[in-house]
Amino acid sequence: MMERLDSWKLAIERLRSAHVPDWAEAARLVAEIARMSSDVTLRQAAEQALPVLRQAVDNDDHSVTLAAQRRLGVVLEVVHDLSAPRFGRRNAMPKQMSREDRARKVLGLPLAVQLTCEDINQAYRRAAKGMHPDRGGSAQGFIDLAAARDLLIHPGAHKDA
């Protein structure tokens, strides 16, 4: 499948870089992609581009050829995304957040900023207005909010259990 993607990519790039693209050839290539691709996104992009490319064959209307160029560009973008190398660990689990980061998230505070006690208390008051049980919030949510504030104000007092 990868060598087919590479050949499609080269063919589309060749068509797009031509001074006057051969729209009949482009329509044939995109029809092949729509028929043979196993990727749903690429198949959809090709199927959507096909009518415009067929319309551009022997058509001198600038708006039609411009639309055909854009549609061919979309197909090329999808092919490029599928054929680009992937870096990093595949299927890796996301990094676990620390207790402090989770507390910051609960209070709606940025993760990488130095905070003062006043910043933490203001964020707590703001969040508590909507989380209080008398205001329609849950009791557990309000308790979690208070725990997050306490953890951020006294980080050394709360060791990981």
TrEMBL record:
Residues 102-161 form the J domain. InterPro entries: DnaJ_domain, J_dom_sf. PROSITE patterns: DNAJ_2 (PS50076). Gene3D superfamilies: DnaJ domain. This is J domain-containing protein. The lineage of its organism: Bacteria, Pseudomonadati, Pseudomonadota, Alphaproteobacteria, Hyphomicrobiales.
